[in-house]
Design goal:
The protein contains 14 helices and eight strands. The chain has 338 residues and is of the alpha/beta class. It folds into two domains: 175 residues, Rossmann fold (3-Layer(aba) Sandwich), CATH 3.40.50; 139 residues, N-(1-d-carboxylethyl)-l-norvaline Dehydrogenase, domain 2. An eight-stranded mixed beta sheet has the order 3-2-1-4-5-6-7-8, with helices on both faces. It binds nicotinamide-adenine-dinucleotide and SN-glycerol-3-phosphate. The site of nicotinamide-adenine-dinucleotide has 28 residues, from helix 1 and helix 3. The site of SN-glycerol-3-phosphate (G3P) has 15 residues, from helix 7, helix 9 and helix 10.
Length: 338
């Protein structure tokens, strides 16, 4: 069992994971990027801006000094995806021991390279064993010990059993998989579709429209995800359809809320300026559209969300763009075409 756990990133998810893993009575170090957050975590034991209503237990030590986190046998990386490369670079520069097992809990796809988080970690910290955690896990519920399930993935099977033991807690059920790409692709791509589901909510379009959109989103997630190296069955699991459902339907989802605000008439710039928390669907829409073009995969929902976010396309035009596509069979004979 891991004895020294460090969590890099004290946003909502990093903080919820600290509360969860502290139940094992293990020492947990929680690193915050923002000095104000560190101050509050240390002095008040709370994180009101990112995860209101929780209190850190005594075995969680908050720090703003990354060097304090290096003495760890298990390190969870939970920064926003756009900061992961920078965080890994800092850990490498500080000499993170190569024995430390790294678990990426971040959901995203890098701009221009199209790399998943595990690929960035392996590039910068090539000697550390790497795993990922994904699934339908809103921090707000996990922190309140409302039951949830997630999936741990690694290419190294020997990592999975000890990780599963650490993450198996009374209110958290951890599954395992060797499809590291598929798990991360589900977790990254669903955020784009949750923005679309939110637009549908913002338009008050009704339950039929949203169910239709989310179902076609699953087909698109699979087309793109399989072309990028994920396995078909993984997209029917917790990190695929499971996370797609929770993010498209939950009142907690930041991505769904971004879409809802777009549907109600706010601009992408207005929304981003007023949002402190990360909505990964915004950067991922650009990365995924870049990848879809490169691989020649038809990705109409991704394209419409990308156009709304990056090309000032009005959301109602995006919606009509999707409804007005040429008729086609429901199942894709050629998985590249939508
Ligand atoms: N919140 C959830 O329910 C949840 C659940 C599963 C996965 N995730 C994923 O976890 C990742 C983090 O999300 P979150 O919800 O914890 O974020 P958040 O929006 O709650 O907080 C973002 C955090 O990132 C920090 N940050 C900003 N710039 C940084 C930088 N350059 N370097 C390091 N840290 C920086 C901020 O200070 C803040 O603490 C995302 O990829 C998200 O998709 C979130
Ligand atoms: O609040 P969101 O939209 O960032 O989603 C958080 C998690 O990824 C849900 O599993």
């Amino acid at each position: 069992m891991y004895k020294k756990i460090s969590i890099i990133g004290a946003g909502g998810w990093g903080t919820a994971l600290a509360l969860l893993l502290a139940e094992n009575r293990t020492a947990v170090r929680l690193w915050a990027h923002n000095p104000e957050v560190t101050k509050e975590l240390v002095s008040q034991r709370t994180n009101e801006d990112y995860l209101p209503g929780v209190r850190l237990p005594p075995n969680v030590y908050a720090t703003g000094n990354l060097a304090d986190t290096l003495d760890a046998d298990l390190m969870l990386l939970v920064p926003p995806s756009k900061a992961l490369r920078e965080v890994c670079g800092k850990l490498a520069g500080l000499g993170l021991p190569k024995e430390a097992v790294i678990v990426s809990c971040t959901k995203g796809l890098e701009h221009d390279t199209g790399k998943l988080m595990s690929e960035i970690i392996e590039e910068i910290l090539p000697e550390n064993p790497v795993a990922v955690l994904s699934g339908p896990n809103h921090a707000e519920e996990v922190a309140q010990r409302i039951p949830a399930a997630g999936v741990l993935g690694s290419k190294s099977p020997e990592l999975l059993e000890p990780l599963q033991r650490v993450f198996s807690l009374p209110t958290f059920r951890a599954y395992t998989s060797d499809d590291v790409m598929g798990i991360q692709l589900g977790g990254a791509l669903k955020n784009i579709f949750a923005i679309g589901a939110g637009v549908s909510d913002g338009f008050n379009m009704g339950d039929n429209a949203k169910a239709g959109l989310v179902t076609r989103a699953l087909a698109e997630m699979m087309r793109l995800g399989i072309a990028m190296g994920g396995r078909r069955e993984t997209f029917f699991g917790l990190s695929g359809v499971g996370d797609l459902m929770v993010t498209c339907f939950s009142r907690h989802s930041r991505n769904r809320k971004v879409g809802e605000r777009l549907g109600r008439g706010e601009s992408p710039a207005q929304i981003q300026e007023s949002m402190q928390m990360v909505a990964e669907g915004i950067p991922t829409a650009l990365s995924a559209w870049q990848v879809a073009q490169k691989l020649g995969i038809e990705a109409p929902i991704t394209y419409e969300i990308y156009s709304v976010l990056y090309e000032n396309k009005p959301p109602h035009e995006a919606m009509w763009g999707l409804l007005g596509r040429p008729p086609k069979p429901e199942s894709d004979r050629d998985h590249r075409q939508g």
